[in-house]
Write a structure and sequence with these properties.
Strand content: 5-15%
Helix content: 25-40%
Largest sheet: 2 strands, antiparallel
Mean pLDDT: 77
Structural class: alpha+beta
Shape: globular
Number of domains: 1
Number of helices: 5
Low-confidence stretches: 54-76
Order of helices and strands: EEEHEHEHEHH
Radius of gyration: 15 Å
Length: 180
């Protein structure tokens, strides 16, 4: 099930307990969360062309050094993430079908092309807690997408995603009220 984890105030991590994508368990709440995060990632988000030197720093310090005033970034170091396949935004319905898998593959390939050390582009996202050496899960990178979207004004706050127009109501009850 998708969960909200407090890492240190005021920063949260949005995690999945099971994998999402091709040949995965595809728990409905996990799929809703991944679909929402992919929607944010493919809606005009600017992202570094390659990992900056601050890549190993923790949390907010890394985000500020890594992304930080984008207007001062050297030309060519920040580019838009790849948009939605066929130009159609992902449908956030909690069902992991071919559209969701193609968005996952596109995101993973984009991160791999930018050398961000993501797991293989198999159309499946491992749970957040799964980390092997320098390889990071796509769900972990999608959390960084949410931080970046907040810095760029695409999200009001990472602490309450429900303020975004595409945020699924079903996740609101899981994250912010404790109900399932």
């Amino acid at each position: 099930m998708a969960r909200l984890v407090t890492t240190f105030k005021p920063l949260f991590k949005y995690v999945t307990d099971r994998s999402v994508g091709r040949n995965a368990s595809n728990d409905r709440a996990d799929v809703l969360l991944v679909q929402f995060m992919l929607r944010v990632a493919t809606s005009g988000l600017r992202w570094p062309k390659s990992p900056p030197p601050a890549f190993g720093l923790p949390g907010r310090q890394r985000a500020i050094l890594q992304y930080g005033p984008l207007s001062n970034s050297p030309v060519g170091t920040i580019q838009f993430l790849t948009g939605p396949p066929d130009g159609i935004p992902i449908v956030i319905d909690g069902i992991c079908g071919q559209q969701t898998i193609s968005f996952i593959e596109r995101f993973q390939q984009d991160m791999k092309d930018r050398q961000f050390g993501v797991e293989d582009t198999v159309g499946q996202m491992a749970p957040y807690s799964t980390t092997v050496s320098t390889v990071r899960t796509s769900v972990g990178l999608l959390n960084e997408v949410l931080q970046m979207a907040t810095l760029q004004g695409l999200l009001a706050t990472i602490n309450d995603l429900s303020k975004h127009y595409a945020f699924p109501r079903e996740l609101y009850y899981i994250f912010y009220t404790g109900q399932t």
